[in-house]
Design a protein that fits this description.
The protein is mostly beta strands and 198 residues long. The protein has strands at 2-7, 11-12, 17-25, 32-40, 43-53, 58-66, 72-84, 87-100, 107-114, 117-119, 124-127, 131-140, 145-154, 160-170, 175-183, 188-197. It has 2 domains: 2-100, Immunoglobulin-like, CATH 2.60.40; 107-197, Immunoglobulins (Immunoglobulin-like). It contains no helices and 16 strands. A hairpin with a 2-residue loop joins strand 4 (32-40) and strand 5 (43-53).
Length: 198
Amino acid sequence: MSISFTLDKTTVSPGEQVKVNWTFMNGWTKSYTFKLEFKINGSPLRTINLGTVRSGRTKTGSFTFSAPKTPGTYTVKVISYLYTYGTWVNEDSDSKSLTVKKEEAKADIQYVKVNGESVGNGGSKTVSKAGITVGVGVKNTGSGGTIVAHIAIKDSKGNEVYSTTKTVSMSSGETKEIAFSTTLPKADEYRVTVSAGH
């Protein structure tokens, strides 16, 4: 008799769906009643009653479950039981490791404004005076955490004249405007590029 299974993914986000595909074979010389018990870190996950399985016969199946919400490494284990003389006897087992990764903040740039006027990210803006203010709208589409926004400004010749980074704390789904102000060397057409991450 043998039991084995696979997970369709071994590294997941908290609460993500995981699919289990299992295969069971009765290697005994006669028919018996069997059941499978799946557990994760020792806690019940799924019990599957196979009923009577004839000698040499194989059964397969699948099911899905939600990964734990706490990051860490978990052990998914299946134990097959044979029913004989009025009791369930542990016959075989298999186990796999499942990693639940830590969710992080994820930045989505909503807009970039130069001196109050919207420009595309990486767009150019003619600045008639040396002072420049850049407002970057950022939405956190991940979990709560810190967002790091980086801005680079290049002049009309492609020379970088300003570069800086700001870090802000944002909850999940929150949108903030991150402002940058500086004094540029001269009036010119400047290209503003913004990137953001965690």
